[in-house]
Write a structure and sequence with these properties.
Distance between the termini: 34 Å
Number of strands: 6
Order of helices and strands: HHEHEHEHHHHEEE
Helix content: 25-40%
Radius of gyration: 18 Å
Structural class: alpha/beta
Number of helices: 8
Shape: globular
Amino acid sequence: MQPLIDNARTFGQRPEEFAGLAQGQSPEVLFITCADSRVVPALITGARPGELFELRTAGNIVPPYASEHPTSEAATIEYAVEVLGVQHIVVCGHSHCGAVGAVVRGDDLNAVPAVRDWLAHAADEPKCSDPADPTVAEAVQHHLLTQLLRLRSYPCIEKRLQADQLRVHGWYYEVHTGAVREHRAETDTFEAL
């Protein structure tokens, strides 16, 4: 913890670098990814403060849209699209995902009931031919495509996509190599960016 505190102390000693941020934000991209500490959107993309609007959830899950039962995730997505006017949304899954791995392996999650219920509520069971694969790559990629479909069903997303005012991207990040691949709809494959 101490290195983090030390950096936080010196971070604020460069106010001139951040003064412009007080004027507001206008990020071009909403970046939806897992809360996993190994996945750092700004590090992966090289983004500076104000360039990414981030949504981090266990398993990069986009819950089904239900206006009668709003979620923090739905509110964040709606705000990014309707208020901030983002032009791109990236949903980024990653290798070695604990949430997807737990679903694939059928782990007993009774000791963590909030996690159990989140995964049961929001995640279809991902396809996986080898549940013993520690990367759970196949399952994560399948899961990612499910999240993209859910995202596209949100009314604000649907409207912007039809108006050609928004693009949605599916990325797969390998934590063990740093490689990023994007889903290509035309070939239904994940290829290097």
